[in-house]
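Please check the following for our workbook:

***
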Amino acid sequence: MTNHDSPSRNERQQTRQRRQNTTLMAIAVTFVLLLLVFAILLCMNVVMALKKPDTPKDDEQTPPVEDQTPETPDDGTPDDQDPPVNNFKTETVTSDQINQGPLIVVNKTHVYQFPASESHLIDIYASQKLAQTHEVYYQLGGKEDYKLYMEATAYSAMNKMLIEFSTQSGLSNVLMENAYRSYDYQKKLYDAGGSTPPGYSDSHTGLSCALGVLDQAKDFATDAAYRWVYENCYKYGFVVRYPADKAAQTGVSDYTNYFRYVGYVHAYVMKTRNLCLEEYIAMLQSHTYGENALKVTTDDGSSYEIYYVSATGAQTQVPVPENSTYTISGDNEGGFIVTVKVS
């Protein structure tokens, strides 16, 4: 007898199949949803990574910008003073400037090129009379047809030195003589039996003069009372033009009381290295612009760089600093000497 209230086996199998299908579908839908969520999260991470700059790990921290600048060594420049700027420009100098400046060499092989005017010269007599110092600190030599003249900067330095010497020693009998000589005056001396032909005397430069002692024969190199001038002249920019042991280089002997203005730093180097002017200029010609420049610290603590630039024709482009004091002097041979005050 058949029971119609109980499901048949076939119906039970169909019900069970439907439940299994529903479960599988739910699992599939859940898996798809999980995949979709994961894909969304992955995309969000990628976008955020592209927008945000890389952050170094704690043990790989990039130093602050200010720490990346190399330390500048302490060069003794005061904090309130800007250090020298090493930017360089060029200055055009002409070929005639080779024959001008305090470092020109004039000797028996290097002729002096006289300028068109003598406006660079000071009448020493007139200057001292105007200042009311004539024969107060030192004496002036000369003759009626040969007044004393010197280049303005050289005379100012010589005057300062001799006033200082007189003030310290109490002596006022130093005699300044044999300063500037014109071509005509040198020719007169040469025609009278002198050894230096006109045009080849260092006296033409106006940068030199001889010193003596009034009515006395004194050697400034050895006499105790006057040796101060010999030992300290470099501080005022002067050197002994014809040292006793340099006759082979200068061509002149027995003239150790003849002083030539070259400027303080150059006088300092020449004195400390025992060089005459010819030797010094020859040495400088190997110190060219750049790393090869001659670096000098003088006894007053100042620092300088000195370098040589060979002439290149009618005009030469000479490198000079933009923001430091400098001078350019010819050598009366073939180039220019640049002196830069660094500090």
Notes: The longest strand covers residues 303-310.
